[in-house]
């Protein structure tokens, strides 16, 4: 049985179609990233998954039943971008309360350790930094040991070290056979941590597959040479270029023509040619929708 089944899911805000006929299945144990620009329909889709928004059309099934049934059984945990923290409560009080709600919760101490909050159990939520509050939301989402964890921009307020620790915790949690679905604007996080990537734009699925699958969807390559004083944008195939650490990094839709032109211009120094990165593929896919 799949953890998630979406069939022709749609939602409208007035006359604006935020989600349009999304059909998507997620197997139990998968880690899936949802990517897309602002307004792509990511958060709306997650809200319908959680049963917090009724679809205009289509169906949502979690573990073969309704989102409400899965939530009532303690099989779903969610981490929103913001909110969800009761004022004047301490970190420990909130987790202790949730510990009593679920039938088979993890110990409070384990949830604190998983979210790197052990030393903050007595601190009130008003005194938490943005990153600490995000880690508390994560602890609240996992303390019930849900089979499905849904995360909306989970690392938005975290620094680099905290983000690394967060993804280590997610991988450990998913390694127990649980399903994780997350939205993010950090493409490197999706590339490094997701088994599968779904790209949304204007409420529709543009791509669905592994990171390698998504990269292969676009005919974009990166051509890199030692930087010289030259306007690389005039070369055939070059869609964009940047100078990084003394190298000119060219995004090309026709790498053969670009390399030939570099040679003709006497600019062929320490050349490297690579397939599209996830960021290149993502930009190519979403810009094609404009």
Q: What is the secondary structure topology, with strand pairs?
A:
Blueprint: E1 4-13, E2 16-26, E3 31-35, H1 42-49, E4 57-62, H2 67-72, E5 76-79, H3 91-101, H4 108-114, H5 130-142, E6 148-152, H6 160-174, E7 179-183, H7 187-193, E8 196-201, E9 204-209, H8 211-216, E10 221-226, E11 238-244, E12 247-252, H9 255-264, E13 272-275, H10 278-287
Parallel strand pairs: 3-7, 3-8, 5-6, 6-7
Antiparallel strand pairs: 1-2, 1-4, 8-9, 10-12, 10-13, 11-12
What does this 3D model show about the protein?
- Helices cover 32% and strands 28% of the residues.
- The chain is an alpha/beta fold.
- It folds into 2 domains: 4-215, P-loop containing nucleotide triphosphate hydrolases (Rossmann fold, 3-Layer(aba) Sandwich); 219-287, Alpha-Beta Plaits, CATH 3.30.70.
- The strands form 3 sheets. The chain has a 6-stranded mixed beta sheet, with helices on both faces. A 4-stranded antiparallel beta sheet has the order 11-12-10-13, covered by helices on one side.
- Helix 6 (160-174) links the parallel strand 6 and strand 7.
- The two termini are 37 Å apart.
